[in-house]
Amino acid sequence: MPKGGVNAPVPVAASATPAVDPRLIVQQEGVKGYLGEFRRRITSGELGSLPVVLALIVIWAVFGSLNSSFLSAQNLSNLSQQIVGTGMIAIGVVFVLLLGEIDLSVGSVSGLCAAIFAVMNVTNGVNQWVALLSALVGGAAVGFIQGFFFAKVGVPAFVVTLAGNLGWNGLMLQILGTSGTVNLPGNDIVSKLYTTIYSQQIAAYGAALIGVLLFLGSALLDTRRRRAAGVPFRTTTDIVLRTAVVAIVAFVVAYTLNQYKGLPLALLIFLIFIVVLEFMLRRTAYGREIFALGGNIEGARRAGINVAFIRITVFMICSTMAAVGGLFNAGQIQSASQTSGGGNLLMNAIAAAVIGGTSLFGGRGSVWSALLGALVIGSIQSGMNIEGLSNAIQFMITGAVLLAAVVIDSLARRTQKAAGRA
Predict the structure, then answer these.
(1) From which residue to which does any coiled coil extend (predicted)?
(2) Which SS3 state, helix, strand or coil, does residue 188 take?
(3) Whose CB among 285, 293, 326, 362 lies 3.0–4.6 Å from 114's, allowing a Cys bridge?
(4) Per-residue pLDDT tens over the stretch 35-92
């Protein structure tokens, strides 16, 4: 019998103490509380983007020490363009991974949609904007078909998209016809989207300033909304520090780009896609339903979430982004051919999403993962090309980095479960 009688309260175990909102800790303890909360998140397995940022720093330091041209403005500017196609596809993969599923057809879909644009515009003389829209609609239609078989018929996503990987590749070959290759003229919209560079320095610095102001405005708006609702909010000091970090990164990138040719339009479009889709994931009911479905499908169903609708639309987003990525890849090489969407594009897109920090187990990740992961893979490829290393070594190192990312994700989940936070 507990000391003090039958009705005496039983002590609660220390491990059952509810977590305190970090915003409240910062308000009460300032910088000390912020550092303490950071240590707690690391020890409990909530690593976020920290591993991939550290990996990117190490990769750049290693290749920069081996060859100074790696960190040159020219190479970094070229790298920012080269990752766009794979990065766009990786954005769509992030959405599917958040559900805890996989899409193995994104490579073929990207090639198919590039072929649709090329054949319609170049071979048949269709208006380039109509051809572009048709390619994007084609990607969305592919996603709807695959999502329908997964969500309504009950075929596993792995099987549906594996079949799609073969089927859409065959359809691409059929559309291209006997020639097998359709060259883009270079003055078409797809080529211009990739090759256009704004040489005026104000373009890069202006884009950096707009990005910083949007970040600051979003943070202030979120704080105002939370303050009005009576829930913990970020302090002014916290917002200022975060904005300062974003500003430093943004203006360093702008300065580096201006040291070569200027701001690539492809990179700007890539960043716009990331910001808009990240906002949709974090700030809308639809985005929260995606996270809920990936975290606990049965709980999401009981909460009234339309599971089939979410699944179908997520696969549509994934295939549409594959179409966007395929068009940028076609603009890079200025052609659509039988090899479009092939090679290691599929693996690189999935690897970019996972390496960037999106969990393979669903329910945890960010659209920014596509950028970070694509930067890691692109940096490895760029550094090894400068050093003259073979593709075989590139594949092995990229595979090792992917494995390391999955291991870190698995260990982080195990740590979170042990800490009672998963």
Answers:
(1) none
(2) coil
(3) 326
(4) 666 666 666 556 667 788 888 899 999 999 999 899 999 999 999 999 999 999 999 9
Q: Do 362 and 122 contact (CB within 8 A), yes or no?
A: no
pLDDT digits (tens, 9 = 90+) for 136-193: 999 999 999 999 999 999 999 999 999 999 999 999 999 998 878 999 998 999 999 9
CB 358 within 8 A of CB 366: yes
pTM of the predicted model, to two decimals? 0.88
Which amino acid appears at position 249 of this protein?
V
3-state secondary structure 346-397: HHHHHHHHHHCCCCCCCCCCCCHHHHHHHHHHHHHHHHHHHHCCCHHHHHHH
Domains and CATH numbers, the chain: 49-199+261-418 (1.10.3470)
CA distance 43 to 362: 21
Which tokens hold the place of 197? Answer: 């560079």
